[in-house]
Amino acid sequence: MRVAVSWTLTALAGALVLFILLTPITIKHITPGAFVRVPVEAIAGAGLLLVLRGRARKVAATLAGLGLGLLLIFKIVDMGFHETLARPFDPVLDWPFLRAGMEFATSTFGMAGGIGVIILFVLLLAGVLVLTTLSVRRLTRTFVEHRKATTVSVAVAGTAWIACAALGAQLVPGVHVAGMGATKLAMKRASKVHDSLLDDSTFGKAVRVDAFRATPGDQLLRGLRGKDVMFTFVESYGRTVAETPEIRALGDSATRRLRTAGFESRSAFLTSPTAGGGSWLAHATLLSGVWVNNQQRYKKLVSGDRLTLNRAFQRAGWRSVGVMPGVMRAWPEAKYFGYNQVYASWNLGYRGPRFGWSPMPDQYTLAQFQRLEHGKKGHPPLMAEIPLGSSHAPWAPIPKMLGWDELGDGSSYNAIHAASQSKEDVWKSPDRLRTEYRRSIEYSLESLISYVEKYGDDKTVLVFLGDHQPIPIATGGATTRDVPITIVSRDRKVLDRVSSAMKWQDAFVPGAGAPVWPMSSFRDRFLNAFAQ
């Protein structure tokens, strides 16, 4: 019985090692075919442990076990990043996302639930390292106890691996028997680390190239003089949802409704520097005109003096305001972007229930902008940046539209919140989740359409866009990073500039043939289009 248990544990240890070496870094690639391979790392590792002696062998086995544990942890983290941000983890630049992840966990599951998730994650990491180290040390003892058989097995396996590699042998179409996935992954990561370490210098050079750094205010944005310009980011409004029949139908309806109110639309696509999260990176990219795709770049940007759209408007005589319901703590970066006034979550007067992540519904946010700034008689021309958060994950509960005179302090949302689906119900099914995600986008867009109908005038210019695509489960696995962008105005001269200089489509929601720009190119193209 003891012998059977011992060999069972040894077999499980070997299976764990093979599983770690062969497991892909994305969930969708975890198929039976992925494990019909022979990893060269296992053969080489067994050979090395046979060659070493005494203490050197123990140290090597321990390091190999820890290394395998770290490999598994990085693969799990990669899976998480692919499922949320549609890309692998960057071991140099992505550590700030840990804080964002903890904040999302606590805001989604509550403080106790969020802390519980974090504790479980830490315990999992420790458990993985212990288990892999014990497994490799157990295998090492077995190799030594059966040295002759192990030596023959390593030699045969090595010869077979070389033959399979030379012949390109496959048991499953597209999957080579001779595997070296862990080695290739390590090489890719080493190259990525090298690039990431140089990224600060690369970005520093890009930031210094600024065609508008010294442009006088009287030469900026002449084509928008006297207008109130709203730059509104719609959370997670990506190309995938924009191409659904429901959003297309909403776009057609919006076009008819806005035309009745005297407004027209032009639209296109921008390619965001992020997906699934990191909204602030997209905001910074659009406003600064440089590609901000990681936190290191963001920090470098906001510590400098590169001209943002906010400060360009400010320099040209506009009052620059930020209506930021998602800002829930001190935000020192506001000084860099350039605002005369920032309204954060604590000074927008909301007393209603929280809908998922968003501190307040989008319609309420827009109503407060109207009350505090846009609706004041005799106000100076406004440039407003307004991120809307009702379409942020977890997409439950979702607010409903109310009459603009019914909003009050937000208490009127209590009944809507009580009757809404819970996030637990929504996340039970991917199909239901995608439906609720789409409905949240419909709500955000309807808030904007209704706002323009109610409060838009001859001076109103609305620019709204998505910040990034949502997490892949909400897109059905789509990998595009394109997001829609639309400008709405009554002024034909404004729209003609967009059509002629920017080549955007005549549509509320851009179609398949709409132009696609890098988001970092928007600032310069927009300033050039409205320079005269």
From TrEMBL:
Keyword Transmembrane helix: yes
Entry keyword annotation includes Transmembrane: yes
Listed name of the protein: Sulfatase
InterPro entries hit by this protein: Alkaline_phosphatase_core_sf
Alphabetical keyword list: Membrane, Transmembrane, Transmembrane helix
Top-level taxon in the UniProt lineage: Bacteria
Organism the protein comes from: Actinomadura rudentiformis
Transmembrane region(s): 7-27, 33-52, 59-77, 109-131, 152-172
SUPFAM superfamilies linked to this entry: Alkaline phosphatase-like (SSF53649)
